[in-house]
DNA sequence: GATGAATGAGTGTTCATTCAT
DNA sequence: CATGAATGAACACTCATTCAT
């Protein structure tokens, strides 16, 4: 028998991201994605159970790689401020260099497909961050305001700022990134 | 195309919001929206040029009413902090009380339809806010960081916090709102 | 608005029968039936909810017209033998003259769609026959063997004999029909 | 194509019957049948030329075994009545005990695949019965009405009565079988 | 102004079959 | 001998839009 080609799965992920970003979630059809990936629509169904599975799997794959990128060179023993600074810059780098993936994730999480994803599982990728937040609160460095609010002022600003779609006026320069981080840190710190 | 029977146009706006929120952008069809509004699909084309026009117009209508709500009791002569506090609470109130409209806008602005909207025109609704920001910078009350960053730390947090879809752990209580505002203000102020 | 065209429903019934008889149940597709009827596949869905509805409705329509044909000139007060003779000849005439309809019904009732039909409702068309059978039993003219067996020896033989597909050697002549009826009557009578 | 591993061929026959009976002719696909048989779809094509060959071969196989069952303990020298009685009971037994096979054959012979079968060859299985009918006519025991009519009143009733799908009200008891045979015999005998 | 009928183009998905291993 | 991968063609069905009334 022919052997399964991992390249095709990867190609389908990339094609999904490209097509969804270009024409939007609503207009993205299985046949367009298959064509973009250079395979037959029927072949797609060998690698994914159905359209939803394709979209959800693509999202999870992005989240996984994003989580890994955010935690690069993560050193749990460093000062909270430095860890956050590291994560902040990692995340900025990831979003800037993987804008397509990031935009896909954004569209996905604003679609009803979102409810099909096991969020608990996704949270695992970000567990170390949560531990640092808790440590920061214990050490009286961070405001004790719950995890959601931390995300809103620490992670979310990056998502918006790094996305030229939202912030046409924000240039991703060394200086601007540091300024933005200072604002985030001002919001979070005690 | 526009005509006198404003009730039908209003009904179509509401139906669009309801349908899109319930089954998502991708699955929302003209005929389903028409049925929800209690009119024939053909009638819809009397009020809107096509599906895109319907979706875009609905979005603009929401943005208009949202802008008005945010600026309620706006007093340009009050202190910058108080104006922002007022806007912050207005916005929270609007989002909480108009979750459906808000969610529609969120889905819309994460779709490629976004590019069909004349953003310049939308900005007008929020012009007074921009003037206050500029005043705050001049008065050395606010960091001088450009309008995008202001939006990211002032407006965006509300959008996320008030949306239970994103923040299941955040309860919209008096206390939490004030805490969050303090964080936003810490981020913005000099 | 355009007005609904009853001719199209009729055309779809006929097209269904023709296509199913020509290429079989399994190979009959909605698009082939629509093409045969001279309408777009999409139009078909205005008149029928889905493929199953089309097939089932066609079957019920046939059964209705067949029941009516079998009971033509039905006179409940005539002798049982004469009534049966009349029904027998009516049925033979119907099957011979409506072979296509009959064959469709045959294929249908040997398909799993059969289970989608409300058989109780169909039985109504044949209620008068059942009453005559009961009378024949009471009058000690017919064997008291239950309704199924009556059907097997009275109705079923016609279905088979009149269908050249099954009985290539049976010519539908006056004499042969009478001979066959005598055999059926011999089977049924006391 | 045929090969030595008769177990797989047998498994495919059985799988075909099971699948077709469960989901119907139209919905039965090669891959579903292969899965039911526990082999790959590709393997199926080693044993059968194509889907049609599989379906037709399954039918012929059933007809062969059915013919053999009907003629069990066949004694050409016995009285015509007794031979018929024997065949009648054999057939009833076969249908009752092989309902799945029988139903498959029924569906098959009501589909256009029927025309793909060499009927002449099938007739061979039933040749002894034909000889007995001819003898009965010569001996003035049976009506001289042609072979088709004999089949209609002798074989067909069993097919219908033994199939609970058609005759929900007929219980396959010793007594009912004998009663039905008497009716068939009354129809046939002079 | 308002509508149900109508449709070509498209949807997601499965099909029977072939091919490389 | 046996197989999972691969696909063009087809499937049932829905779409956004137009048309006749």
- Please outline the major beta sheet of chain A: none
From the spread of the alpha carbons, the general shape of chain A counts as elongated
Order of helices and strands of chain A: HHHHHHHHHHH
Kindly, what is the distance between the CA atoms of the first and last residues of chain A, rounded to a whole number of angstroms? 63 Å
Class inferred from helices and paired strands of chain A: mainly alpha
C-alpha Rg of chain A, in Å? 19 Å
List unreliable stretches of 5+ residues of chain A.
none
- Proportion in helices of chain A: 55-70%
Which strand-content bin applies to the residues of chain A?
under 5%
Number of strands of chain A: 0
In quaternary terms, these chains amount to homotetramer
Q: Main interface pair? A: A-B, 39 and 39 residues
How many DSSP H or I helices of chain A?
Answer: 11
Integer average pLDDT of chain A = 92
Features:
about 190 residues; mainly alpha; elongated; homotetramer; 11 helices; DNA-binding
List the helices and strands and how they pair.
The structure is a homotetramer of 190-residue chains.
Chain A: H1 6-23, H2 30-37, H3 41-47, H4 51-70, H5 80-97, H6 99-109, H7 119-124, H8 127-138, H9 147-154, H10 156-161, H11 174-188
Chain A binds a DNA duplex (21 and 21 nucleotides) through residues 1-5, 8, 29-31, 39-43, 45-46, 50-51.
